[in-house]
Amino acid sequence: MAVVELPFGREKINVNIPDSRLNGLLISGAHSYQADGEEEELVRKAMEHPIHSPRLKELVKGKKSIVMIASDHTRPVPSRVITPAIIEEIKEGNPQAQLTILIATGFHRSTTREELIDKFGREIVDRTDVRFVVHESRKEEDMVFIGTLPSGGRLLINRIAAEADVLFSEGFIEPHFFAGFSGGRKSVLPGVSSGVTVMANHCSEFIDSPFARTGILEGNPIHRDMVYAAGKAKLSFIVNVVLDENKKVIKAYAGHFDEAHKEGCRFVDQLSGVDAIPADIVISTNGGYPLDQNIYQAVKGMTAAEATCNPGGVIIMAASCSDGHGGQSLYDTFARGEDKNAIMKRFLDTPRDKTVPDQWEAQILCRILLKYKVIMVTQAPREMICNMQMDYADSVEEAISMADHYLGKTDGKITVIPDGVSVIVRKRRLS
Question: Is residue 356 situated within a structural domain?
Answer without folding.
Answer: yes
